[in-house]
Amino acid sequence: MIGVLQLRWKKPANIPPKAPLSFGPFNSTTQTRWKKPANTAQTRLENRVRDPNLDNLVAHYRRLKLILNLHDLVSAKKRGPFVSVQLLSKWAPHAGITTIAAGDLFRKYPHIFEVFTHPVKRNLCCKFRDKFVNFLKEEHDVVLQNEEESVMRIRKILMMSVNGRVHLHALRLMRTELGLPENFKDLIIIKYNQVFRMVDLEIIELIDGNGVSESFGVAKIESWRKKEYVEKWLSEFEVKYAFPIDFPTGFKKEPGFKEKLKNWQRLPYVKPYERERTTEATEPSSRCDELISRSGVIGKRGFGGVERYEKRAVAVIHEVLSLTVEKSVPVERLAHFKKDLDIVVNIRELLLKHPGIFYISTKGITEIVFLREAYSKGRLIEPNPIYDLRRKMLELILLGNRHTRELRTERELKDETKDMTDDDNGWESREGDFVIPILECFTDHDENDNLN
């Protein structure tokens, strides 16, 4: 009897797992569930139409901010007008400069930094150029001279608040954007005690806010509305509650978008300086109910209810941005005014909802919101003295390695040599110091060639 040979097939271990069936003629009955794309504030921020002019401006100002941080750090050490390159390399990360070495920083911005050799220790040192330092001093002087404008800005923010009070830390965070002096608490708030009053260590109150003239409590947007009403002969119904709209290039309008925007422009709202709303600290829901009942619409989801409340928040943010020096501010600093200015909505989502009025730039670490109507091709339409000085400092950075031959003239070399060998700088005169100017000329010539 012949035995039957049985072969047992073994599955190879290297066979990959079966891939899911793709849709085709033989599996047409297979059901595939498609996920609905997420529509969040983050996705809207990533998919928005970008403005390259404002993005480039933010990138340039970020460099200026890092250099200003480095200047503040060097000035606080009180080691004199110069510092060694080796020591500055250790301080640079504390100022936020982590992606570039100190030597590359000096070669990249020769109009900001001046590199020289110490006449005694013979090590490389650097200092900020006089032109850059003079711009900083001029900005400081202009801020101190514009004392009345600083009082006006703080007073207007207090007039927009719920009960005439604002936390001091919110103003302190926006000090640079509002053009306030560094110690504005002593120079403005305490000095003008007939206008402001310190309720607490961190709370400011406006004294007799109802006694202010009506012309003072007029929003910046009203001047644009008046111009549109007079020059374009538009009806008051079309202009009274409208905002200037300027969409970025490439913005796609969905069907029905123009009609919705037209209805939103006509929608009335409680203006920022109006005192019709309750001044008590009530709940957000009760404030919304009050606006809804005033508009005569039943239900919170009516077009006259929540939409009116959001439009008032847009007007408040619009007015705050109009009070700033450069019509821009980081979004996170705006969030500190939410409770004081009665903005009980998500500020980031509200800004993204109105791309024709605001623009959020994500160039850099922080998100910065711009007032679109105030800028044209990356420049402020109505400049001011503080903006002009900051723009001049920015232009020194943008020069890069161009026009470096004009930086060091023969007269500057003589003045620098005289200052370096002077006893007032703390250096003792030694025998043989007459040789230092000769060596200085050779070393400075080589360094100048490297910068170019």
From TrEMBL:
PORR domain ranges (all copies): 49-401
One Gene Ontology term of the molecular function aspect: RNA binding
InterPro entries: PORR_domain, PORR_fam
Name of this chain's protein: PORR domain-containing protein
Biological source species: Capsicum baccatum
